[in-house]
Amino acid sequence: MWKVESFRESDDGLEWEIYLVSATRAALEEELGFSMPTPDGYPISGEQVRRLAKFARPGALDGKVLDDERFAFFVEAVADKPGDTYDEVGFF
Q1: What is the pTM of this model?
Q2: Measuring CA to CA, which residue among 29, 22, 11 is closest to residue 60?
Q3: Strand extents, DSSP E, the chain
Q4: Dist. CA 31–CA 16, nearest whole Å
Q5: Contact between 19 and 28 (Cβ < 8 Å)
Q6: What's the CA gap between 30 and 24, in Å, rounded?
Q7: In the chain, helix, strand, coil percent, each to 5?
Q8: Which pLDDT band holds residue 78 (cuts at 50, 70, 90)?
Q9: The predicted structure's pLDDT at residue 38
Q10: How confident is the model at residue 39 (pLDDT cuts 50, 70, 90)?
Q11: What region does 49 belong to: left with phi over 0, alpha with psi -120 to 50, or beta?
Q12: What is the rounded (10 degree) CA torsion for 65, 67, 70, 73?
């Protein structure tokens, strides 16, 4: 599974996160226009977050601020549950 995280620039604290429940690695790479060869976090812009919202549940961005000046955004692979491996998202 994949998620997007928003961190406050003021104190690096986590502001919010959304899970991209219907995203595949290939679909995200195509939408973002870059390769994600590892499950690390990749910095993205607020506009890219808006584009990735189609992979989340409807309304996932409601009330969320996408201001690049105030927040840093990242997309990353996460395990669905403890003990999972990254093979479901395309990593070994």
Answers
A1: 0.85
A2: 22
A3: 2-8, 14-20, 42-44, 71-77
A4: 21
A5: no
A6: 10
A7: 25, 25, 50
A8: confident
A9: 87
A10: confident
A11: alpha
A12: 80
Phi, psi dihedral angles at 57 (to 5 degrees): -65, 150
* Confidence at 19, pLDDT banded by 50, 70, 90: very high
List the structure tokens of 56. 């989340």
Locate 4 and state its tokens: 């997007």
Distance CA 24, CA 65 (A): 25
Rounded CA Rg of the chain: 13
Q: CA angle, 47 as apex, 46 and 51 as ends, to 5°? A: 115
What are the helix (H) ranges across the chain?
A: 25-32, 46-52
Nearest alpha carbon to residue 31 among 17, 19, 45, 48: 48
Q: Tokens 């669905």 identify what position?
A: 80
